Amino acid sequence: MTLPDVTFLGARVLTPDGLADTPLALSRGLIAEAPAGVSVDASGHLILPGIVDIHGDGFERHLAPRRGALESLSAGLASLDAELAANGITTAVLAQFFSWEGGMRGPDFAERLADALAGTPMRADTMLQLRLETGMIGDFDRALALIGRARIPYVVLNDHLPHRELAEGRRPPRLSGQALKAQRSPEAHWKLLQEMHDRRDEVPAALAHFCAVARQHGVLIGSHDDHTAEDRARARALGATLSEFPETAEAAMAARKAGEGVIMGAPNLVRGGSHAGKVAAGDLVAEGIVDALASDYHYPAPARAAFRLAADGMDLARAWALVSSGPARLLGLSDRGRIVPGLRADLVIVEEEGHRIAATVAGGEVSFLAGPLATRFLQAAT
What we know:
8-stranded parallel beta sheet, alpha/beta, 6-stranded mixed beta sheet
């Protein structure tokens, strides 16, 4: 529901200067300077900036349940929207592959998802990130056309080709499963991979052209899984100013020294390390290298990661910035991520005891409301 002018009373509000016992007013979808409208008792709660999730692929399970269980992508997106709201996410970037892997990661699905998203009302401000497989040079024009048509603001460069196996003429791992998803025979899939591998010397020039055209249209470019400083330097030469999930401290530090954004996975921090044995997000956060924590594959993780950092001694304002103002800044979204008069009314209200999410407000609209706070809303409205 769209909120009328409202003032929350009794909560502790996370302002740019830290937690403050202060009323918080919303008016016409924005944070207001002075008390306005009806009053809602929010005592016992924290009011925090809405979470800006800069990279999440947990949406895939909403769009690919068991065969026949989903009548349309729009229905899946509506389910996704509900999960985003329940986890305090008010801005969501869906990390969609544009890959030779096919299925939900193939170009056909990327185009279908873009069309479905354009036609589905979402309470969270939801946009696509295109994860471009760099070996698909024959499809770069198709990718650029999709970026332009769907106004995709963010592209990340990936290379998941099994180059070592292909160079040795060995059958790559997971070949049969990938071929099945792509609706190819294993032989045809292997041939496609080998052809892309054999054209690897053409990739740098084609990729440079692709990135130049994308940047001319204001598209952010990021790299994914940088392993070395040299990896980051190659990405930087293409105009990639963001480093997603660097695998080593060396790569992350190279990005930091160049003034580039570093994004790590919130699940990595919550579980205490990478499930794949890469650098621990918590170590990089402790070194002050990380700008943003992303949901990656688990939408509850950003809030949990921020509160974990606060429990371990980090100032809550600094910890919460990693899931709000930090990612907003990297995305160039200056109208959100902080509780400041005149900015979007993007908020998450959590119970101070236990940090359970009680309400989410996205652009002045209530997208999630539960528990005792819901009763207080109803009381204020009558």
